[in-house]
From TrEMBL:
Ranges where the record places region Disordered: 241-267
Alphabetical list of PROSITE patterns matching this protein: IGPS
GO biological process entries: L-tryptophan biosynthetic process
Stored InterPro entries: Aldolase_TIM, Indglycph_syn_Halo_TrpC, Indole-3-glycerol_P_synth, Indole-3-glycerol_P_synth_dom, Indole-3-GlycerolPSynthase_CS, RibuloseP-bd_barrel
Coiled-coil boundaries: none
EC numbers for this chain: 4.1.1.48
Name this protein carries in UniProt: Indole-3-glycerol phosphate synthase
Native organism: Natrinema halophilum
Pathways involved: Amino-acid biosynthesis; L-tryptophan biosynthesis; L-tryptophan from chorismate: step 4/5
Compositionally biased region (Basic and acidic residues): 247-257
Length: 267
C-alpha cells in the first residue's frame, strides 16, 4: 500500500472505517454474469456502455438520496445501463451489502460491488458479479486479484496513474478502471484517463471512472479509449430528490447517438 500521507482526510477516514469492519462468516462463491458480454450487448445496441452507480451519498456529494436502491437500479437499467455498481460502504456512502443483494436479485445485468476491500476477508461479505480492488490500498495486489477470481468475482482493479497501471497489469488484471479523481485533493481531471488509458493493452477492458457528468464528457472518454464508463453522481443527482434517474442514465448511454444526430442536423 502506498503512503497515506498523500491521501485526503476523507479518504483516510474511509480506510480507517474499512479496517474496522469485519468480513463475512464464510467464503463467498459467485456464479458471475459476464461483464464483457454485457458491454458487448450495449455496443451492439448502439448504447454507450455505462456502469451506473447506486450511491446514496459520498464525501463529495451535495446531498443524500433516500430512494429505494432497487427502484434506482431498475430505473438505471431502463435508461440503458449495461451494468450496475452498488456502494456497500455504510459510513461515508450510505451503502450496504443488503442493498446489493436486493439489487442483484431484481436486475439481469452484472452488478459491481464498490467498496474498500483491503484483504480476502473483506471479499467474503456479499455475492456480486464484479468486485472493486483499489490498487493503491492493497499490499499484495496479485494475491487479492487471484483470490477474487477463485471466488468467481470478476475483479475490477482501480488505478490512478501509470505506475499503478503497471502494477495492475503485473497482477494479471483484465478489467482496469482509471479513476479521474485525485485521492489527495479529491479533485477531478478527465486528463487523468487520457494520459493513462493509452498505455493499457488492447486485450484489457478499460473503464473511465469519476467526473463524467455530460454527454460531452462521455464522448471524450470514449474517444480516449474507454470501453465503458462508471458514472455515479451525474446519474444520482444528489442535489435533487426528484431527479429522473432513468433520463440521467439515458443521456449518457445515448451520448454518441446524440452527437451523430447533432452533426447530421448541422450539415
Amino acid at each position: 500500500m502506498n503512503s497515506e500521507t498523500e491521501l485526503a482526510p476523507a479518504v483516510k477516514s474511509i480506510l480507517a472505517a474499512a479496517r474496522e469492519r469485519s468480513g463475512g462468516e464464510g467464503v463467498v462463491n459467485v456464479d458471475a454474469r459476464s461483464i464483457s458480454d454485457a458491454l458487448a450487448r450495449a455496443e451492439a445496441d448502439g448504447r454507450v456502455p455505462v456502469i451506473a452507480e447506486v450511491k446514496p451519498t459520498s464525501p463529495t456529494a451535495d446531498g443524500t438520496r433516500t430512494d429505494d436502491p432497487v427502484e434506482l437500479a431498475e430505473a438505471m437499467v431502463e435508461g440503458g445501463a449495461a451494468a450496475i455498481s452498488v456502494l456497500t460502504e455504510p459510513t461515508h456512502f450510505g451503502g450496504s451489502p443488503e442493498a446489493l443483494t436486493r439489487i442483484r436479485e431484481a436486475v439481469d445485468v452484472p452488478v459491481l460491488r464498490k467498496d474498500f476491500v483491503l484483504d480476502e476477508a473483506g471479499m467474503d461479505v456479499v455475492a456480486a458479479d464484479l468486485l472493486l480492488v483499489i490498487a493503491r490500498f492493497v499490499d499484495d495486489l496479485s494475491e487479492l486479484v487471484a483470490a477474487a477470481r477463485d471466488r468467481g468475482f470478476q475483479p475490477l482493479v482501480e488505478v490512478h496513474d501509470r505506475d499503478e497501471l503497471e502494477d495492475a497489469l503485473e497482477a494479471g488484471a483484465e478489467i482496469i478502471g482509471v479513476n479521474n479523481r485525485d485521492l489527495a485533493k479529491l479533485e477531478v481531471d478527465l486528463e487523468t484517463f487520457e494520459s493513462v488509458a493509452p498505455h493499457a493493452p488492447d486485450d484489457v477492458t478499460v473503464i473511465a471512472e469519476s467526473g463524467i457528468s455530460s454527454p460531452v464528457d462521455a464522448r471524450r472518454m470514449r474517444e480516449a479509449g474507454a470501453d465503458a464508463l462508471l458514472v455515479g453522481s451525474a446519474i444520482m443527482d444528489h442535489g435533487a430528490d426528484e431527479s429522473d434517474v432513468t433520463e440521467n442514465t439515458r443521456r449518457l448511454t445515448r451520448a454518441e447517438t446524440a452527437e451523430s444526430t447533432t452533426e447530421t442536423e448541422t450539415t
